[in-house]
């Protein structure tokens, strides 16, 4: 059965980890969660309060990482998925994260990202000439990286499938699973 890698860490958006994780398992894929270290991760929930100018952050679920980023052989995986939240802010500095992501783009394997995950991709040069969705506040990051920001619920550009935030999950995962079924089908 093909394996899918989710690269994340503490303060990742809870729904953006757990929904794809469960959806990919349901589809029949083996899913590994990779983080800087193997430990119990603490996710967060971003939500909206009518009196705030921005979103709020509350503690979310805890979930164990399966593998450290340093120990990941990206050739073992058919695709990678990068959730948003605050984890991408520090993942982008991790040389193992960088190595992993660059592998998937170089090999033209499926890559899914959502929300603030784009801040981890922008410095890697992988968005140049690409169309991508992200949380709208990240549009400048996309443009500075040479990409085109698209404000839509699911944007597919070759092997790249992106979305704005967790409320786009149905369309985003539908598009990603369709790409996986073409490029890395589960044998039934």
TrEMBL record:
Sequence ranges assigned to domain DJ-1/PfpI in this UniProt record: 3-178
Pfam family membership, one: DJ-1_PfpI
Q: Does the keyword Hydrolase apply?
A: yes
- GO molecular function per UniProt: hydrolase activity, acting on glycosyl bonds; peptidase activity
The protein's superkingdom reads Bacteria
What Gene Ontology biological process does one annotation of this record name? proteolysis
The UniProt keywords, alphabetically, are: Glycosidase, Hydrolase, Protease
- Its EC number is 3.2.-.-
The record ties this protein, via NCBIfam families, to:
PfpI
In which family does this protein belong, per the annotation?
Belongs to the peptidase C56 family.
Protein name, please? Peptidase
Q: Organism, per UniProt? A: Streptomyces eurocidicus
């Amino acid at each position: 059965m093909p394996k899918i890698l989710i690269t994340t860490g503490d303060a990742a958006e809870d729904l953006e980890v757990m929904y794809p994780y469960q959806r990919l398992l349901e589809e029949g894929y083996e899913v590994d969660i990779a983080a800087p270290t193997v430990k119990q991760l603490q996710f967060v929930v971003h939500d909206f309060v009518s009196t705030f100018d921005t979103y709020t952050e509350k503690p979310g679920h805890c979930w164990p990482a399966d593998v450290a980023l340093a120990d990941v052989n990206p050739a073992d995986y058919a695709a990678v998925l990068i959730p948003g939240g605050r984890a991408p802010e520090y993942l982008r500095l991790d040389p193992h994260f960088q190595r992993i992501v660059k592998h998937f783009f170089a090999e033209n394997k499926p890559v899914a990202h959502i929300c603030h995950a784009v801040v981890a991709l922008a410095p890697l040069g992988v968005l140049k000439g690409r169309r991508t969705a992200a949380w709208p506040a990240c549009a400048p990051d996309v443009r500075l990286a040479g990409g085109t920001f698209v404000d839509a619920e699911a944007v597919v550009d070759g092997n790249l499938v992106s979305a704005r935030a967790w409320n786009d999950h149905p369309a985003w995962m539908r598009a990603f699973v369709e790409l996986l079924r073409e490029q890395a089908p589960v044998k039934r």
